[in-house]
Amino acid sequence: MPERRRGAVRSEAARTSILTATARLFAERGYDHLSIESIAAAAGVGKQTIYRWWPSKGFLVAECLLEGMLLPERLEPPDTGDLRTDLISWLEEIFRVLESPNGEGLMRSLIAAAAENDEVGKRLGASLGGLSLMSRINAQDEASGISPGAAREIVEALVGAVVMRALSRTPIESGDAERLVQAVLGVAVS
Amino acid sequence: MPERRRGAVRSEAARTSILTATARLFAERGYDHLSIESIAAAAGVGKQTIYRWWPSKGFLVAECLLEGMLLPERLEPPDTGDLRTDLISWLEEIFRVLESPNGEGLMRSLIAAAAENDEVGKRLGASLGGLSLMSRINAQDEASGISPGAAREIVEALVGAVVMRALSRTPIESGDAERLVQAVLGVAVS
Amino acid sequence: MPERRRGAVRSEAARTSILTATARLFAERGYDHLSIESIAAAAGVGKQTIYRWWPSKGFLVAECLLEGMLLPERLEPPDTGDLRTDLISWLEEIFRVLESPNGEGLMRSLIAAAAENDEVGKRLGASLGGLSLMSRINAQDEASGISPGAAREIVEALVGAVVMRALSRTPIESGDAERLVQAVLGVAVS
Amino acid sequence: MPERRRGAVRSEAARTSILTATARLFAERGYDHLSIESIAAAAGVGKQTIYRWWPSKGFLVAECLLEGMLLPERLEPPDTGDLRTDLISWLEEIFRVLESPNGEGLMRSLIAAAAENDEVGKRLGASLGGLSLMSRINAQDEASGISPGAAREIVEALVGAVVMRALSRTPIESGDAERLVQAVLGVAVS
DNA sequence: GGCTAATCGAGACGGTACGTCCCGTCTTTAG
DNA sequence: CTAAAGACGGGACGTACCGTCTCGATTAGCC
């Protein structure tokens, strides 16, 4: 027996409008300066309805991230067969986001959220496409010159480099994606 | 004549006790939850004295970082001549900090500060030893198999990987430093 | 035919446990700090069940008052034939309630409820025994030296004096009941 | 030495506008429905400025009462030499306030405040003129037929009767003041 | 027996207000 | 002119309740 709960059921309309409002305000104002109060007001919802389902704004942002409401596109690496080229395309896509208006601010907000909230932290890498990338590399281990089991380290290094770019406020220059892949993947795979 | 301003001069005692209090509270409570009010109280100082000299708590933290009051040790890579070994030692040192009690929390607080404040962001990499590492690699370019001009990318990738570790809440395992260096520097340099 | 409604009938168990819970919480926490939510929880009842039958907590308290669940005893004046003595006994009884632990708080809660809710207000005097006292005095008018038709004023003055005692936080001293009757009834009736 | 305190001094402007706003909102909305938040907004003041100086809205109302900002007129009994006539005039004045638009509501709000807050409770009687009346009666003890030391009881009874009128929602009729004085002062003084 | 209607418990919902924390600014007194 | 102290207007926090509503379950008269 599924042990039915009693009482009114959770309102999907409220949930949706809260997440939408969160995503919008996150993009507009950044993670700091994002307040539960303003989310509630923008969503046309009582504050308690937010606190009933999410412990803090960090988890709200985490759920938005999971639903793909924060990043403008699906940042998955393409698969043309040539890993190196795919990596470069992928990084260039990410860099393009970073260079878009307020793109860096959005990324830094994401980092701030990841620093404060466990859920966001655990999902940050995957949201940038790291997860599918890892399994992709793992599958190709033998075929490429990459040492086996290094997938995690490579992805960590590449995503980490992107994060450092956002944190260090260094402007991105053309060719950066290629140089980065070159540095991490090494000469051997060229 | 050096054009001395009239009136009382800035109190060094106040400055020091403010920075000390900031560093202590930063370590205890993290970047969020760090408040100017509590710093002033802990330092035995009026709030105005803080606002007179620093624009926000971010800059306070930046100055602490610059003075080496936030990280427990000097995180400079050693120089034994063997770059690969030095990198591993350096990363192991950083990982050791991460594994110390609240070490990860401290690192995440640093990242949060870097995400919010430009100064902290610009200095984060250097504070972890990235700056001296870069010049070291640049100097050795020809000697090693590293492609010329890749120093920045390599350091970015390594430091970035560390940052991702802290953000993703992945526990560190023995050998991780070596694997990371292996992945980034590639087989060719072994 | 009494035009019976269809559907389930009002649950007497719910009604009783609501009133009991109300009376208990009223005594424990006072009229302010008394919440429908806590009554419902204490009574093991849904909030709607309360709102279905009572418009507000004021009416709940009014019904408790009417059922004698709020005041510890029946505060009716005795009837020995000697009005003056009876009045003194009655006031002494009320004063005894006031002096009991939290007795004054209870009385003030009752006054607060009376100030907010019409029903409670109209019943307050009667609950303290004023109603039966009035008819008693009216019946004795000629026999005593009391001017005819003054019953209402006398009762109002006596009960009012008790209320003022509770409001003014003046401690009660022995003999107060007698002095009060003396002041209101005057020397002529002694 | 007067042990001078440091730091900015309390703003009289803020204090005044808070009390004015309190008095206005008290008259408009009553003691329940009076909220610190609305007072702060109406006074153009931060909530903390209220909480810094008053523990609760009860004390705010108490201070307004003390400054005579709540009751429309000075409700002191006149002194023509004839106590009975003066008492009647005084009660008629109070009854006139009760009969004015929202006058009864104001009185009940005052009673509610008195029931909740000690300060208001202690001052309620005095604010209605009870204090000056008591000393007046005491001074005349021998001259009148009033038993010595009965001043407090008489005032308590009279003011209490007024309070009961407000609580019981009984409409006031012409001659009520006289009947009340008659009942309390007795035939002897007629 | 099935239908309809009312009740009950539970509890989600949009709101208001609470009392607290902290912001960044301003004011006061002391050195 | 700096400094400690601290009051100020304001924004947001997370919590408590308000009164309404929506559920599923139960109960009782009616066809």
Shape of chain A: elongated
Name the average pLDDT of chain A.
90
- Report the C-alpha radius of gyration of chain A, rounded: 19 Å
Give me the oligomer status. homotetramer
Helix content of chain A: 55-70%
Largest interface: A-B, 43 and 43 residues
Low-confidence stretches of chain A: none
Termini Cα gap of chain A: 60 Å
User: What structural class should be given to the helix and strand makeup of chain A?
Assistant: mainly alpha
Number of helices of chain A: 10
**Largest sheet entry of chain A:** none
Helix-strand string of chain A: HHHHHHHHHH
Q: Based on DSSP secondary structure assignment, what is the total number of beta strands of chain A?
A: 0
- Give the percentage of residues in beta strands of chain A: under 5%
Structure description:
The structure is a homotetramer of 190-residue chains. Chain A is mainly alpha-helical and 190 residues long. Chain A contains ten helices and no strands. Chain A is elongated, with a radius of gyration of 19 Å. Chains in contact: A-B, C-D. The interface between A and B is large, with 43 and 43 residues. Chain A binds a DNA duplex (31 and 31 nucleotides) through residues 4-11, 14, 35-38, 40, 44-49, 51-52.
List the helices and strands and how they pair.
Four copies of one chain form a homotetramer.
Chain A: H1 12-29, H2 36-43, H3 47-53, H4 57-66, H5 83-99, H6 103-116, H7 118-127, H8 130-140, H9 151-168, H10 176-185
The structure holds a DNA duplex (31 and 31 nucleotides).
